Amino acid sequence: MEIQLNEEQQKIYNLVLNSKKSGITKANLAKNAGLNTKEVEKIIKTLENRDKIKSVRPNGRTTGVKLWIDFNQTLDSSLPTNVFRTAEQGVDDDLIERIKQKLIYFMQQQFDGRASLDEIRRVYKAQQSEHYDEMDFDRIINLLQYDSILIEEENSFFKLNPFRQQKFQFYLSYLPCQTCPVFNQCKPGNTISPEKCIFEW
């Protein structure tokens, strides 16, 4: 006899079912169910153990956004594969932060904290060897500049900002706008607007 799901488990399961072949992120499950991340993680584990849902990544990626779909469902192969963000799937903040920290560590090992763009690119490629994309690399560099961690110099060289070496509580790039694929269409009162933002703040 199958064990019945409790109210919160059923709520999460229904959200996964409703996502159909598109899947849904943990962040969106928490937001739509009105639960915190820890509660959702526990429910996800229970549903996975009961073969109700499973985790997948778009187009066979081994990094990037993780989605949950019905156990017997197949993920839509036409889903975008941006390693950081898609309009429906949310942002993989953990992946972005890991890559940023690895690049910062590399810069710290360089003389005077300086390195060329090509040298930084080689380090990024080594980390993202399976799914390297020049646009993703540009996004990371932009984020590090937005946060005033990297300063661009002449001849495509960058250096660490000496005044930004301490650990910060908040970076500008933590705002979802910085990596949003529809940022240019987002205006107050529009169909796409800050009031209707589906990403976590």
From TrEMBL:
Q: Which GO terms describe its biological process?
A: transcription by RNA polymerase III
Pfam families xrefs? RNA_pol_Rpc34
Q: Where in the cell is it found?
A: Nucleus
| InterPro entries linked | RNA_pol_Rpc34, RNA_pol_Rpc34-like
Give the UniProt keywords, A-Z. Answer: Nucleus, Transcription
Its cellular-component GO annotations read: RNA polymerase III complex
What is the name listed in the Swiss-Prot or TrEMBL entry for this protein? Answer: RNA polymerase III subunit C6
